[in-house]
């Protein structure tokens, strides 16, 4: 090497530097490069693993083969095949393009790239690949068929856009069915069909079309935001929050996504908190929280309707009878097919002893939802209606169904004093007073006994002989007197419990 330097006339210093560079090249080749045997090993391992379906492992070997020899068009082509097998068509495209650059007459790669471009809806680029194949191999049947599909796709795309701009959304959807069949990886056709569904009011189908576009486009923040808004308008606030967060992952400074995120997060927190309060039976606090929900989102009907529904439910649980009927009626007007509202209003009518209306509401609720809870509620309301046509102990004492024991006893004492038979002179008046007095005492007995009151509230009269085993009660009167003892003159003695 030194002799070579002298022959070329290089000075000692330059010659030394030249020798150092040569030595470095040799060392780098040993570190970074790969022998042909190693490359062949990676290719063979990649082939075997690909055949066995172990795609990730196969891809690793093809990566090593490409790094070892970046001039071999086949290594790029084979790696592209693995990407395609993994469903990563976007990753396969650069490898196919590189294979074609290294070998322009590699028709298999052109066909494969053309097929991907066609499925992506890129008709012009796909046409160029298929046309190039046919110029080199005029009888290639696959290229001929795909070129025909490319022309068909172009015409359908133009037709779909024309119909959309004319407002013919249903017809546009029909055309786009075929478009998407040919080009399933084209985000634009799915986005257009989603817009048609939105304009037709079918938001769920719009969501189905938009969801895959988040993967078909890079950094598709617009799709994530639109998905979030659609879920939000449907009342799916947790899904809405998930999608808008995906948008912010792509760009935390995106103003539209951040603004929507704040709104969804605030409302979602309020809704979750309100439901937790209901589960904890803190109905007044839940009611207050739903009032706040309506202020946070007054413009989306789902949330205002939901708030009214849950306020109605809370008022029934709080036994605020008249207010419950008013709020439930308003909620029913907003959402006439909501079985839960009808169920809750029926319960409010029961509390107000309006059993016929309760039966009507339960029957209507059953038209929209046949769950067991509503069937049982209807049966109970019908029993209560039947009993009320005989004896309604709440009405006898003039108390509400939510009255406590002290209120019941107070009402009983007042009526017992009023209808005591000793207060009346004529026999007719005494007999009428006796009947009322017995009813008053029976009502007091049933409503102050927790077990009997529970039975009565469930639609069963515990003092009805038909409901008693053995044909009746041995002691029919709840107080210590027998109004039908022998003798014409008697005095009532009873205890005010």
TrEMBL record:
Region spans: Disordered: 449-480
InterPro entries the record matches: DnaJ_C3_Co-chaperones (IPR051727), DnaJ_domain (IPR001623), J_dom_sf (IPR036869), TPR-like_helical_dom_sf (IPR011990), TPR_rpt (IPR019734)
Cellular location(s): Endoplasmic reticulum
Coiled coil spans: 352-391
Domain J: 392-460
Matching PROSITE patterns: DNAJ_2, TPR
Molecular-function GO terms, alphabetical: misfolded protein binding; protein-folding chaperone binding
Record field: compositional bias (Basic and acidic residues): 449-458
A GO biological process held by the record: response to unfolded protein
Protein name, per record: DnaJ homolog subfamily C member 3
Signal sequence region: 1-33
Keyword list, A-Z: Coiled coil, Disulfide bond, Endoplasmic reticulum, Repeat, Signal, TPR repeat, Unfolded protein response
GO CC aspect terms: endoplasmic reticulum
Chief place where the protein resides: endoplasmic reticulum
TPR repeat windows: 73-106, 107-140, 339-372
């Amino acid at each position: 090497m030194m002799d070579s330097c002298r022959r070329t006339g290089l000075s000692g210093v330059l010659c030394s530097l030249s020798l150092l560079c040569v030595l470095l090249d040799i060392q780098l080749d040993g570190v970074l490069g790969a022998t042909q045997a190693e490359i062949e090993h990676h290719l063979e391992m990649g082939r075997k693993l690909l055949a066995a379906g172990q795609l990730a492992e196969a891809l690793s070997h093809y990566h090593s083969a490409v790094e070892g020899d970046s001039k071999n068009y086949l290594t790029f082509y084979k790696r592209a095949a693995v990407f395609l097998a993994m469903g990563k068509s976007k990753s396969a495209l650069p490898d196919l393009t590189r294979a074609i650059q290294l070998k322009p007459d590699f028709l298999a790669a052109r066909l494969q790239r053309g097929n991907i471009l066609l499925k992506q809806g890129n008709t012009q680029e796909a046409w160029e690949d298929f046309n190039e194949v046919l110029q080199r191999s005029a009888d290639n049947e696959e290229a001929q068929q795909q070129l025909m599909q490319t022309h068909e796709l172009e015409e359908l795309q133009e037709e779909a856009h024309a119909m959309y701009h004319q407002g013919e959304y249903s017809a546009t959807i029909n055309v786009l069915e075929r478009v998407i069949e040919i080009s399933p990886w084209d985000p634009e056709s799915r986005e257009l069909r989603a817009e048609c569904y939105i304009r037709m009011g079918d938001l769920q189908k719009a969501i189905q079309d938009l969801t895959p576009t988040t993967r078909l486009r890079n950094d598709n923040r617009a799709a994530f935001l639109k998905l979030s808004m659609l879920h939000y308008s449907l009342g799916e606030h947790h899904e809405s929050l998930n999608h808008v967060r995906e948008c912010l992952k792509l760009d935390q400074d995106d103003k539209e996504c951040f603004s929507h995120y704040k709104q969804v997060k605030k409302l979602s927190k309020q809704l979750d908190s309100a439901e937790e309060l209901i589960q904890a039976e803190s109905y007044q606090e839940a009611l207050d929280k739903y009032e706040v929900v309506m202020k946070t989102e007054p413009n989306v009907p789902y949330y205002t309707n939901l708030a009214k529904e849950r306020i109605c439910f809370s008022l029934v649980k709080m036994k605020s009878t008249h207010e419950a009927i008013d709020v439930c009626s308003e909620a029913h007007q907003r959402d006439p097919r909501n079985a839960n509202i009808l169920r809750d209003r029926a319960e409010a009518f029961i509390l107000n002893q309006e059993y016929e209306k309760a039966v009507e509401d339960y029957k209507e609720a059953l038209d929209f939802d046949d769950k067991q809870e509503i069937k049982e509620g209807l049966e109970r309301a019908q029993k209560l209606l039947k009993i009320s046509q005989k004896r309604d102990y709440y009405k006898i004492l003039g108390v509400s169904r939510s009255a406590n024991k002290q209120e019941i006893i107070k009402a009983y004492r007042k009526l017992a004093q009023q209808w005591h038979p000793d207060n009346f002179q004529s026999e007719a008046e005494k007999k009428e007073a006796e009947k009322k007095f017995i009813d008053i005492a029976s009502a007091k007995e049933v409503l102050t006994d927790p077990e009997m009151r529970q039975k009565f509230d469930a639609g069963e009269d515990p003092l009805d002989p038909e409901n008693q085993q053995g044909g009746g009660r041995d002691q029919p009167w709840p107080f210590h007197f027998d109004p039908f003892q022998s003798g014409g003159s008697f005095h009532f003695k009873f205890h005010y419990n």
